[in-house]
Specification:
Elements lengths: L4 E3 L3 E7 L4 H6 L9 E7 L2 H14 L3 E7 L15 E7 L2 H17 L3 E3 L7 E7 L4 H7 L7 E6 L1 H14 L3 E6 L8 E6 L2 H20 L5
Antiparallel strand pairs: 1-6, 2-3, 3-5, 4-5, 6-7, 7-8, 8-10, 9-10
Length: 219
């Protein structure tokens, strides 16, 4: 397995709304009876941000109330601060928002990122393993918080071939598939199993993405 070059995400904006209007809270999926404050981030990579939002739920009493990828990705963003995703956390305590945002920033700066799967970086892969899920991604994946999960993303052809490799490489189960095109024209999947199995599946996924890039046509 070659050493893959990390493509670090760029945090474009971080804002707080300590006493949000109830109408705004409802519009963005929060509950005015339980939430009063919001924390917002925009980033130029969506999938690492979903991981970071989930991480926030493990470090603070916050709920992820809104998280959406933007169509066609950060290269076609609507503005300088738009990036590829807007994520919003909510709480009844501004201090919890601060703790949640700190966890998001820490994860984006030091843990979750895409990797270049070829020499010029035109193929990117996200073979990320979450050792212990928080409340956000576990609910989407349909499993319990605390379980391990492989979060796998690549361009459409690479991801489809690599997912087959990953499922065969380890004792994992397909929790959720995101066939192409996603909003950013990639494809993705969540795989569940033991931590060791998820790590083996993620490694197989990354290796297969690199292999497809090197030989895009079967002989």
């Amino acid at each position: 397995m070659p050493v893959l070059e990390p493509l670090l995400p760029k945090i474009l904006s971080v804002k707080r709304i300590p006493g949000a209007d109830p109408a705004l809270l409802r519009a963005y999926g929060a509950d005015p009876e339980r939430h009063t404050s919001l924390g917002l981030v925009t980033v130029d990579q969506d999938d690492p941000t979903y991981v970071a939002l989930d991480e926030a739920t493990k470090h603070a009493r916050v709920d992820v109330v809104y998280a959406r990828s933007f169509y066609a990705g950060s290269r076609h963003a609507s503005g300088a601060l738009s990036g590829e995703i807007l994520g919003v956390i909510a709480s009844d305590d501004p201090e919890e928002i601060e703790s949640g945002l700190a966890a998001i920033i820490q994860t984006l700066e030091h843990d979750a990122c895409f990797y270049a799967a070829n020499d010029d970086g035109s193929i990117a892969v996200f073979p990320h393993v979450i050792a212990s899920l928080g409340t956000y991604l576990s609910a989407i994946a349909g499993v319990s918080p605390g379980e391990s999960m492989a979060y796998l993303v690549a361009p459409p052809m690479e991801a489809t071939v690599a997912l087959d490799f990953a499922l065969k490489a380890a004792d994992v189960r397909l929790l959720k598939a995101f066939p192409p095109p996603t909003e950013t024209n990639f494809a993705a999947a969540y795989l569940g199993g033991s931590l060791e199995a998820c790590e083996a599946a993620a490694m197989a996924f990354a290796e297969a993405v690199v292999a497809v890039g090197r030989e895009p046509r079967d002989r």
